[in-house]
Design goal:
Elements (H helix, E strand, L loop, with lengths): L5 E2 L19 H21 L3 E6 L4 E6 L3 E2 L3 E3 L5 E3 L3 E4 L1
Parallel strand pairs: 1-3
Antiparallel strand pairs: 2-3, 2-7, 4-5, 5-6
């Protein structure tokens, strides 16, 4: 699955544009995504562990290897205030 995702630097995410639509349409996948986000937040805060985030902007599917520092109701927060909208994330591992 990850071969169709282009690796991107965390610093470049701030330059991306994100549509308002959700990349997932299955209710179970959306629930799984929330669980993965909460797990990534715990790993980031407790162990400073990096995780891979698979997401999509207006142009293509991308992957970043980073630490999750925070979560709001709409965004996953990375270092330096970089944010990825939750509705644009496919998977975190």
């Amino acid at each position: 699955m990850t071969e169709e995702f282009k690796i991107i630097d965390k610093e470049d995410i701030a330059l991306l544009k994100f549509p308002q639509t959700d990349v997932l349409d299955d209710v179970d996948e959306i629930k799984t995504r929330i669980s993965e986000i909460n797990r990534a937040l715990s790993l980031g805060n407790l162990e400073h562990s990096k995780i891979k985030i698979l997401f999509e902007d207006t142009e293509s599917k991308k992957m970043v290897d980073t630490t999750v520092w925070g979560v709001t109701d709409k965004n996953v927060m990375l270092k330096q205030g970089v944010m990825i909208p939750i509705h644009r994330i496919y998977k975190l591992f």
